[in-house]
């Protein structure tokens, strides 16, 4: 593996931005502190990293950080975590990147493991705690709806991307596998954007033909909750499920939801209610939101399953920086790749919408009071739209739990 050349020490006149001299343990502890303070989702996490490592300590120049962030937003994976890995490499080479990434994710991982362990041992069904989780589930759906809107604003930038999202949603409702939908959306959009309309139409027709051929096996995301339960998963199966989610996380952690749900709820390894509970818990932890995969892995396969799914989910976030450090910025200049990824991301938005509808339907069926659940959802959605704060998500989850304890017990 090629070694990383560290920047030369700047002269007092040049004032070049560069990381300070740190030992490996000091570097790990530096990013562990970031992990302990990583509340509020990716926007708050990136702002924290920018404030301390760009504005105050000048690990990297501001314009270069902006370019790096643009690249991370093109690639799948949690941007804040990928930035930590990249800046760790900049400070101490690839081992430094590995330590920085581990430090950033460790607090959330440990806390989620503890919460998942407690969740499987506490009485939940027909208790006040169960009513609180029902309230949280309604609030989580509101959080996801707001997140989908925000993601869509950044991804669905022209009518053709809207068409890709709507087509993906329709295909998912029809039971077409996302392995057909997403590559077709990316290829058709990239070709159409370059005025190669005949080839784009051919791609769409081929995707339709493949969907018809596989109709008998069709296991689309929309029908995930009705699949026949499969045998208990192995750690390897959960690793691959996490890896799939990690590779298809475009535009934010919420885009991993349909893929993780399909591979777990869809196989009968956990229920939609448990899945929503995991999403709710991830919203209150200092961690990238994809840490919900740790909870899903625990419910599906215990401690080994939790660690395996977490490893799969975070592997791409490590790999892109560790393997492609010197070439990452070239990605932002690769227009064809960007067009393909834009089409895929638009398709993912369509899949998330279908998944949210499924989750909402499941919650509506389970709640003892549809009125109370609707109130929780409406109030939570209003807060998410009106309150621009990193505390908004934890606040609406706490509100959902409080109202659920009173109205749904």
Largest sheet: none
- What is the C-alpha radius of gyration, as a whole number of Å? 22 Å
Strand content: under 5%
Q: How many β-strand stretches? A: 0
**What proportion of the residues is helical, as a percent range?**
over 70%
Q: What is the succession of H and E elements?
A: HHHHHHHHHHHHHHHH
Mean of the pLDDT scores? Answer: 84
* End-to-end C-alpha gap: 58 Å
Helix and strand content put the structural class at mainly alpha
Can you walk through the features of this model?
Keywords: Cell membrane, Membrane, Transmembrane, Transmembrane helix. It is a multi-pass membrane protein. InterPro entries: Chr_Tranpt_l_chain, Chromate_transpt. With 409 residues, the chain is mostly helical. It has two domains: 24-105, no CATH class; 109-407, no CATH class. The chain has helices at residues 24-36, 41-56, 62-74, 79-119, 128-155, 159-173, 178-193, 197-213, 235-247, 257-264, 272-282, 292-324, 328-331, 335-366, 370-386, 392-407.
